[in-house]
Specification:
Order of helices and strands: HEEEEEEEEEE
Structural class: alpha+beta
Helix content: 10-25%
Number of strands: 10
Length: 138
């Protein structure tokens, strides 16, 4: 009885492997993922935004800040589209940031509509700055 069960599992596994191999061999190639990035020099550092994906798909928007000079700050990162709607800010407050430090990249998974998006950086206690926009690839 154990031999029958083992033999049956091996046969099922072999069949599954053959099907998976066939499916992989005949699958249509995926289109390369679109990617665009743009950085803005804010004087004391660079604010960058990137978009991975295409219009009409779920994609990823990333925003990061690389500090080069100036006073110590605490910041929150976000983005907004140019066609309306509110800003999307991270809940994470980065800091204290001193020259030579960075926030890394905050990411949002979202539906990518036609249009452009721009990065935002809220400097706690000082206000919000906006970077240059980048357009979602068609």
């Amino acid at each position: 009885m154990r031999t029958t069960v083992r033999t049956g599992l091996v046969a099922v596994a072999a069949t599954a492997l053959a099907c998976a191999t066939t499916a992989t061999a005949t699958a249509a190639p995926r289109a390369p993922q679109a990617y665009v990035q743009r950085c803005t020099d804010l004087g004391n550092g660079d604010l960058c935004i990137d978009v991975t994906g295409r219009v009409g798909q779920t994609g990823r928007i990333g925003v990061g800040y690389w500090k080069r000079a100036g006073d110590t700050v605490h910041v929150r990162l976000g983005w907004q589209n140019t066609t309306g709607g509110g800003a999307n800010f991270s809940r994470t407050v980065h800091g204290p940031l001193t020259p030579g430090m960075n926030t890394g990249t905050e990411t949002w998974t979202t539906y990518l509509a036609a249009g452009c998006v721009y990065p935002l950086i809220e400097v706690v206690g000082q206000g919000t700055l906006k970077g240059k926009e980048v357009c979602v690839p068609a």
